[in-house]
Write a structure and sequence with these properties.
Blueprint (H helix, E strand, L loop, with lengths): L1 H4 L12 E3 L15 E5 L3 H12 L3 E6 L10 E5 L5 E5 L5 E2 L3 H7 L9 E3 L5 E2 L5 E2 L10 H9 L5 H6 L2 H8 L3 H8 L4 H7 L4 H13 L10 H13 L7 E4 L3 H15 L3 E4 L3 E6 L5 E5 L5 E3 L1 E4 L3 H9 L7 H9 L6 E8 L10 E4 L7 E4 L5 H10 L2 E7 L8 H15 L8 E9 L23 E3 L12 H19 L7 E3 L15 H4 L2
Parallel strand pairs: 2-3, 2-15, 3-11, 8-17, 15-21
Antiparallel strand pairs: 1-22, 4-5, 6-10, 7-10, 8-9, 12-13, 13-14, 16-19, 16-20, 17-18, 18-19
């Protein structure tokens, strides 16, 4: 694993991946016998924590309220109308090359990452045949930006002259402390407005990107958006290419990882929701759940959803710390999203991309043709002559009805892929959920961290404030490893080395970073 991460220095040294320091007092290879940890939540963060702890000799019990593992990237079995059993998920998931820590977890069950398939492009499609491609761009900033600007049809040189230089330079001068101090109080929409991009160019180059984080621009911190730009494009030495799993998540990841962990002695209690955490006299914790016997352990990793965490803390009177409870209570959810997967009796046209983003077409945000990259769907399509299509809509208006979402998604699909107009739906699964964390303006410093006021209680999840730029699956996996590292350091045990994209942009320290340019618009 280390060989894949310790990369040679790039010509632009600031863009080399960075290793995060481990605790200097953590020297032991394994914990003393008898140490135990309860992990609440079997999603990506919880499974990362459970994996590292079990590998260091900790006795681990994972409690998960669902009947399956993986949380928001989990998979479960469904029986289609034609009688076939398939795995259903909550939507398409991309493994970007800078997901160093998520990939490190995957390597536990796939050492050579053979289950990942490289996508050559993920174009952005709009009305009237508009298309923006990200293939064959240079990997390194700023050459990737220059390459995109030189070949895009949505920007003219005159448009670049009219852009606000100071606002645009904020993308290249990202710095965790200064960027959040200068931009966290502003909305992402205010920042994007300040760039003075032509409307069509903004739709094609920015809208899909910002929508992918589930938070609407008018409700998202400008600093969070700038961090995402840095993490995925402006400060990322890996390029924009990403990989996808060649089989459903449960088959490729969660079932093998469960077997791996059970081999290390991890116990799983699925379908069991933790309701409260108590502190034992003399140390340790005692967990109460809605089924089964209480669990006692030396420590607990709370890696639940935002709403579940708030309920647990509210019902745990012994976890009394006013300031910390206020941080937990302040966590919020962003707008709903929808996933609609359809098994159709008609194939897609030759030459279609497995995944495309969409813009300027109402609620639809992307189209995934699962039969072009996932084995289970490919086999179904080959047997039936049909296709497996998934449509996504992010940042939906609160209170929107399902019929309206379905209508707009289908209109977008038929406009862009007319060959599927009139196709019969053999089976379908439609999900609307609202459980992704919000990253509202001014919320960064209020977010809880991995550490809590209670030494035996740590947090993990993509809602946790981390000291590095990271997002989505990588944020969840990194937080889980960090939570395990924190507990292991308390027992003087060496944790896992973690990696980050550069924590500062190419021009950090050279260009003033602040919100005044945005504020003046």
């Amino acid at each position: 694993m280390r060989l894949s991460l310790e990369m040679p220095s790039l010509s632009l040294g600031r863009l080399s991946p960075e290793r995060l320091p481990l605790s200097p007092r953590a020297r032991l290879p394994r914990v003393p016998r008898g140490r135990s940890v309860a992990v609440v939540g079997g999603g990506l963060a919880g499974m990362a924590a459970a994996t590292l702890l079990a590998e260091r000799g900790v006795s681990v019990t994972v409690l998960e309220r669902e009947s399956f593992l993986g949380g928001r990237v989990g998979g479960w079995m469904e029986r289609l109308e034609d009688g076939e059993s398939v795995e259903m998920e909550r939507g398409f998931h991309a493994f970007f090359r800078q997901y160093y820590n998520a990939r490190a977890l995957l390597r536990r069950v796939d050492p050579r990452l053979e289950r990942l398939r490289k996508l050559e492009d993920y174009p952005i499609l709009g009305r009237g045949g508009s298309m923006e491609s990200f293939s064959r761009l240079p990997a390194l900033p700023p050459f990737n930006v220059l390459g995109l600007v030189m070949r895009t049809s949505t920007l003219k040189w005159a448009d670049l002259v009219r852009m606000d230089l100071r606002s645009s330079m904020a993308m290249l001068s990202f710095d965790m402390e200064r960027t959040y101090a200068g931009f966290d109080q502003r909305t992402a929409r205010e920042y994007l407005d300040s760039l003075r991009f032509p409307p069509h160019a903004r739709r094609m180059l920015f809208d899909v990107f910002s929508h992918s984080f589930f938070n609407p621009e008018e409700e998202m911190s400008a600093a969070e958006l700038l961090m995402m730009f840095h993490f995925y494009f402006m400060g990322n030495p890996e390029g924009l290419v990403f990989d996808v799993l060649d089989e459903p998540f449960a088959t490729a990841v969660w079932l093998p990882l469960r077997r791996y962990l059970e081999g290390l002695g991890v116990r799983f209690r699925l379908g069991e929701a933790v309701t409260a955490v108590g502190l034992r006299e003399g140390g340790g914790v005692r967990l109460r759940s809605d089924g089964g016997a209480p669990v006692e352990a030396d420590a607990v990793v709370l890696s639940t959803s935002v709403e579940a965490l708030k309920r647990i803390i509210s019902d745990s009177p012994e976890l009394r710390d006013g300031g910390w409870r206020e941080q937990v209570d302040a966590l919020a959810l962003t707008s709903p999203f929808a996933v609609w997967r359809m098994w159709l009796n008609r194939p897609s046209a030759p030459g279609r991309h497995p995944f495309v983003g969409t813009t300027g077409m109402g609620m639809i945000d992307n189209i995934s043709l699962y039969h072009l990259f996932e084995g289970e769907s490919r086999r179904w399509a080959a047997r039936t002559g049909g296709s497996v299509v998934e449509l996504h809509a992010y940042g939906l208006p609160r209170g929107v009805d399902e019929a309206s979402v379905r209508r707009e998604l289908l209109d977008g699909l038929h406009h862009l892929y007319p060959e599927l107009r009139g196709a019969s739906v053999v089976a379908e699964r439609f999900l609307m959920r609202q459980d992704c964390p919000a990253f509202a303006p001014g919320s960064f410093q209020l977010r809880p961290t991995v550490e809590t006021p209670f030494p035996q209680v740590v947090l993990a999840g993509d809602f946790v404030r981390l000291p590095i730029p990271t997002a989505l699956m990588e944020r969840a996996a990194t937080s889980g490893f960090m939570a395990a590292n924190h507990l292991l350091a308390g027992w003087e045990v060496r944790g896992q080395e973690l990696w980050s994209v550069p924590r500062r942009g190419l021009l950090a320290g050279l260009v003033p970073t602040g919100g005044s340019a945005v504020a003046s618009r």
